[in-house]
Design goal:
The protein has 212 residues and is an all-beta fold. Helices cover 0% and strands 22% of the residues. Strand 8 and strand 9 form a beta hairpin.
């Protein structure tokens, strides 16, 4: 760094006359040597500071509602639900149709018995009957049984009159009839015998009953 001292000019005024005088030459400045300063010390880098622990800031304002998203894919079919409870009972339906026509009249049931008038060749007609009664006043040389119903049982009641001893020939389709009306039987004796008819022939049901 150089320091220079300038010239000094002095102006004097004497008795109204301006007199300029030059001042003395100044002393030349001295050269100054500027020394560079010493190199500074390099300091090591400092360690990083610890993380600060600031408190949680306040909650921000609620944002605008976004637009509705697109429809998602259809999910898989769920499991079958449990069976529901039974519903209430429905109202009673209308009554049935009208009564049907009356059926045909069935065959008449057998009466207790038919009293057959004596004849040497009597006919025992089973129409409407399941039993027959005849009083012998003479010998019956042949007899006939007609209109029997299969599965039905027919009963004969044969009575001797007071003369007694009359014989009786059973119908040819009544098998196993008892032959007891020979001479020597008591007067007014009764024999009762039943037969099961199969549609063709009659067969004895048990044994004959005698009533003296």
């Amino acid at each position: 760094m150089l320091l220079l001292v300038g010239l000094k000019l002095t102006t004097l005024t004497l008795a109204g006359t301006l007199i300029d005088s030059t001042g003395a030459t100044g002393t030349p400045g001295q050269n100054l040597t500027v020394n560079a300063g010493a190199t500074g010390t390099v300091w090591a880098a400092g360690s990083s500071g610890g993380t600060g622990s600031g408190g949680t800031g306040p909650t921000g304002a609620t944002g605008h509602t976004g637009s509705t998203g697109s429809k998602g894919a259809t999910g898989s079919t769920g499991a079958t639900g449990a069976t529901g409870s039974n519903g209430v009972t429905g109202a009673t339906g209308p009554s049935g149709g009208p009564t049907g026509p009356t059926g045909a009249t069935g065959a008449a049931g057998g009466a207790a018995q038919s009293t057959v008038s004596f004849s040497a060749t009597p006919i025992f007609n089973a129409t409407g009957y399941t039993g027959f009664q005849i009083t012998l006043t003479g010998n019956v040389t042949s007899s006939t049984f007609i209109n029997g119903v299969a599965g039905q049982t027919y009963t004969w009641k044969i009575i001797q009159n007071g003369t007694r001893g009359w014989t009786f020939a059973w119908p040819t389709n009544i098998l196993g009839g008892t032959e007891l009306f020979e001479a020597g039987l008591s007067a007014n004796e009764v024999i009762i015998q039943a037969f099961y008819f199969d549609g063709t022939n009659g067969y004895p049901v048990g044994v004959a009953t005698f009533i003296p």
